[in-house]
UniProtKB/TrEMBL annotation:
Protein name per Swiss-Prot or TrEMBL: Secreted protein
Superkingdom: Bacteria
Annotated PROSITE patterns: PROKAR_LIPOPROTEIN (PS51257)
Organism: Algoriella xinjiangensis
Amino acid sequence: MMKKFLQLGYILIGCSPLFAQTEKPSDIFWKNLEKHCGKAYEGKLAEHIKRDDFAGKKLTMHVKSCSENEIKIPFNVGDNYSRTWVLTKNDGIITLKHDHRHEDGTSDSITYYGGTNTNYGFKDFQTFPADQETANLIDYASTNIWWITLDDNVFSYNLQKAGSKNQFNVFFDLTKEIKTPPAPWGWGKAR
């Protein structure tokens, strides 16, 4: 009788929600970002940021392309459509790369830099320390850390350079969808 009771106990414990496989935080983050696919939003720089190349220009993001393992988000500064954030997911780990293009669609000489999260992150926060490819391409960016936050109201893109007291932060209001901006430079060509 005791043996059957113990066997039943092991079966019940194995079926317990405590032992059930839980969804990775990165997968929750990914699904929540996919909800915005096809939508565009306007952003604002953090108040402390003073960049002449961004001053007075409309900042937009467009979650333009979503697949199981890749999300492309063009980030536009005024009529400059050169930037696309490319997120990829491999075994639950997310990578961020920056695809920069010229107006004719060709790659910029500095493109596809970024990093890969070292773990699953959080459902509303993913971080991307600079990878070796970035260090080889842009030596001064070898200690960069990018991060993205995402909740029901705000998507933020952020950058901290080691040794700098300044951060780059841009916040997009997810509660106010805007008209879809023009396609980024090079869209439709091999990307």
